[in-house]
Design goal:
Layout (H helix, E strand, L loop, with lengths): L15 E5 L4 H12 L3 E6 L2 H13 L4 E5 L5 H15 L4 E4 L14 H32 L5 E6 L13 H20 L5 E8 L15 H11 L14 H8 L9 E5 L7
Parallel strand pairs: 1-2, 1-4, 2-3, 4-5, 5-6, 6-7
Helix pairs in contact: 1-2, 3-4, 4-5
Length: 269
């Protein structure tokens, strides 16, 4: 790789990416970023209408897209998603796990099964997807068809920081996600497969659009949050493009087990 043309380090055109939770806030952003960069896409989501919408958006950008109306609910489902990528495009280069959930309640108001549901969606399913993808990527390396692979999980600033408003399940799940990233980064380091996470704070999406409004409640919540953000603003979808493209490309070949905070400095202070 020549440093005289460093932009080639970020090229992912022609590679195959599997994105789970593709109809969610981060998943839709990831799909559009990788479609625009020229990837073949396998998009998986449980919301069929939203899945079809993002799939059509990506096809309009010129990407080849396979849409799967499925969630990574168990080992078989995760294996099926990876198999779909191999069947459609001959292999798997990039996994982005954007599926997950958050249910907010103070600890004495949260049912134990709710805690378990959040941990399953954010931790167990991430582990199962990473397991399925790593198996395929290692087989590709052994066969000499690929030099490695990229696994990108979605964490959160809440994996590092607590929250006073009923986030015990979410914070615990994202701290566990960070642990998976670090452990797998070590375990897979010699294989050419990197495992990293993007950890955003609040960014503009259908779920957070109200925080960008001008009503009194939005202004009050935003002001309290921005007091902790050195950059002085909330995140925009394009703020996630650079980090994702970096972690999905050869530019990050020497980076693994890393949590990349896309947070405007929120976790620095």
């Amino acid at each position: 790789m020549s440093l005289s043309n460093p932009l080639t380090m970020f090229e992912v055109a022609g590679q195959t990416a599997l994105i789970t939770g593709a109809s969610g806030a981060f998943g839709m952003v990831a799909a559009r970023i990788l479609a625009g960069a020229g990837c073949n896409l396998v998009l998986a989501a449980g919301n069929q209408s939203a899945l079809e919408e993002i799939a059509e958006d990506c096809r309009a950008m010129g990407a080849a897209v396979t849409a799967l109306n499925a969630r990574p609910s168990d080992e078989a489902a995760c294996a099926s998603m990876v198999a779909a990528a191999v069947k459609a495009y001959g292999g798997l280069d990039i996994l982005v796990v954007a599926s997950g959930m958050n249910k907010v309640a103070l600890i004495n108001d949260m049912a134990p099964e709710t805690f378990t549901d959040v941990m399953d969606a954010n931790v167990t399913q991430s582990w199962l997807l990473a397991r399925a993808a790593a198996g395929q990527m290692k087989a590709q390396v052994a066969a000499g068809t690929h030099q490695g692979g990229k696994i990108v999980l979605v964490s959160s600033a809440r994996g590092l920081l607590g929250h006073p408003a009923g986030y015990t399940a979410y914070c615990a799940s994202k701290a566990a996600t960070d642990g998976i990233v670090k452990a797998l980064g070590c375990e897979l380091g010699a294989t050419g497969i990197t495992v990293n996470a993007i950890a955003p704070t609040v960014f503009r999406s259908p779920l957070t659009a109200w925080m960008f409004g001008e009503d009194d409640r939005a202004k009050a919540v935003r002001a309290g949050f921005l007091a902790r953000v050195p950059k002085g603003r909330l995140g925009e979808p394009e703020d996630l493009a650079g980090p994702l493209l970096f972690l999905a490309s050869k530019a990050s070949d020497f980076y693994t087990g890393h949590i990349l905070y896309a947070d405007g400095g929120y976790t620095a202070g």
